[in-house]
Amino acid sequence: MPQMLCPPRCGRFNEAELGERVRAEFREMPGLKLTLVQASRLFDVDPIQCERVFSSLVVNGQLATDGRMFTRSLT
After folding, report:
1. Helix 47-59 to helix 15-28 angle, to the nearest 10 degrees?
2. CATH number of the domain that 26 lies in?
């Protein structure tokens, strides 16, 4: 049986809820590095929604990216 990585309703997060969940995961695991594909799977969301949320978090200074991987911002 596959292991669930998130609660059953996680695929139904709106973007504000998803943003908070992403920030919480990166806070709890400071060394976490994810591509958008990995993040989309981990958070069980559509890749386009995932990209919007991650891009917003980069613009707001909460995440950093090298163009491929996303990490917790050091600022």
Report:
1. 70
2. 1.10.10.10
Domain count, the chain: 1
Edge-to-edge strand order for the sheet containing 70-72? 33-34, 70-72, 63-65
DSSP notation for 19-41: HHHHHHHHHH-TT-EE-HHHHHH
Whether 64 maps to a domain, the answer reads yes
Q: Residue length, the chain?
A: 75
Predicted TM-score (pTM) of this structure: 0.80
Spatial contact of 61 and 75, defined as CB atoms under 8 Å apart: yes
Note the pLDDT tens digit of each residue in 10-68: 456 789 999 999 999 999 998 999 999 999 999 999 999 999 999 999 999 999 999 99
Residue 52: domain span = 14-72
Tell me the one-letter amino acid at 33: K
